Amino acid sequence: METADVHDLLSALIHHAKQRPDEIALIDSQTGAAAFTWSELTCRVDATAIMLRSKFSEATTTKRLTYRCTNRPEDVVLSLACVAAGFTEIPIDAFLPAPQQDVLIKRSKALHWAHEIHANSIHSSKVADAISNLETAARDVDIHSPSLVLWTSGTTSEPRGVMLSQHNLTTNAKAKLLAVPQHTSDLRLSLLSIAHAYARTSDMGTWLLSGCRWSLGRGRSTLRSLPENLCPTLINAVPVLINDILNRIESGQSSLQSLRLLGCGGVAMSLGQFERCKQNGIGVIQGYGCTETSPVICSASPDNATPNRVGPLVAGWESKVEHGRLFVRGPGVMIGYLDEEAATQQKVSPGGWLDTGDLVEIHDDGQFQILGRADDVIVMDNGFKVFPATIERQLLQLEGIEQAVLLHHQGQLCLLLSHSQPQVTADAPTGRDPIESCLADSLPPGTSVKRLKLSEPLSIKSGELTAKGTPRRPIIRQRRLSSPPDSRPNHSRDP
């Protein structure tokens, strides 16, 4: 059996343990040394599953399990052990603010696992026994029942727990691999949390199916300390990390010279970043999806990457567009929201169509362009529709602009800006302010836009950005526009 035939991700692990037992599966991102071979990983997963069954054997009210996910090999072990032991895994991103972690743990209504308490009590099984035990467990996996709950980033509302099945996760990872093939010789480096959907499928799911090597890290700290002997060929990131990656490649950091594909999700890559990737011989993979769709809906491939587009639908999806709003149906649609039946019914129709809440444009070549969230669209008094995310992406391509958020407040368009240098200088040939030019190209003549300087940058810690770096507009509006001390006017112009 090849992994293309598996119905769950546990079976993919078993396949590699039987076919390639001594090959490296996981690599320590701090040392570059092997953390687990496929056989060692299988033994550890089996032993952890045995402990889960033993420790929580009397827990009859719930089979949910939360833990603080730090993006380390033990998180991967526990995830697969949950599948084997029949628990619903609920990872909590350990990089979220501590109070937010506590709220999500409480809302999960689950048993809790602490790695530091149980690590020394887990004794690995023999390989043959582990494979036999896990094969038995895999036969009992209900691929359509909740296997994983991922908390959404809460861009426009409170976070919700999204219930996903092994069918959701496995079919979506297969579809991503069809769009972006990878090989056993590849080395994937994770910089994003596997407690969120993008890394969970595009990193972890594709790793299990492809059998490549995988090293788990998190953010800039991993890039700063990357060992010279750890040379990834595949990285998925968000734009805030992509600049750092490109700067390090261009400065000659040896560990990043083998990178062949750089994936971008969550927020669109800028045109400047796209061109820099090409100049450095790196293929760009932009994609699109949401937690409720496991998450990948669209993905570019190495041969069709185009700036500002996210590729066509991946295998298995149907789509329809109503008033510019994207609806999808397919095997990746979630089971539902955790303990929120009414919210589930609002999100997914009886016919299985999921409302993404995003506005899209589909080009003649089948590629999708994401215009922004439908809830974010600003309708001016003259009926003109403003797409803030589109304008913000254009502004972020200007030199010196670190953050840009366009909001509508009390009848006025307000542009909140954070600069990496004192100011953006005027364009020499035209004498026009580049920000003014960008706004003039996107808005009707005479539209007034008040510019405000962000006295403090937006951050995940403050709750003003989601884990993937997108702005939480209601919170920003309340804090930065309703409270004068938080934002200081810079200047106001009619572009």
Description of the molecule:
The protein has helices at residues 9-19, 38-55, 73-85, 98-108, 115-118, 127-139, 166-179, 197-210, 219-224, 239-250, 271-279, 341-347, 388-396, 434-442, 473-481, and strands at residues 24-28, 34-37, 64-69, 88-93, 111-112, 146-151, 161-165, 187-190, 213-216, 234-237, 261-264, 283-289, 296-299, 318-322, 325-329, 336-337, 354-362, 368-373, 378-379, 385-386, 401-409, 412-419, 449-454, 487-493. It has 495 residues and is an alpha/beta fold. The chain folds into 2 domains: 3-370, ANL, N-terminal domain (Rossmann fold, 3-Layer(aba) Sandwich), CATH 3.40.50.12780; 377-493, 2-Layer Sandwich (GMP Synthetase, Chain A, domain 3), CATH 3.30.300. The strands form 6 sheets. Strands 2-1-9-8-10-11-12-13 form an 8-stranded mixed sheet. A 4-stranded antiparallel sheet has the order 14-15-17-18. A hairpin with a 5-residue loop joins β1 (24-28) and β2 (34-37). α1 packs across α2 (38-55) and α2 (38-55) crosses α3 (73-85).
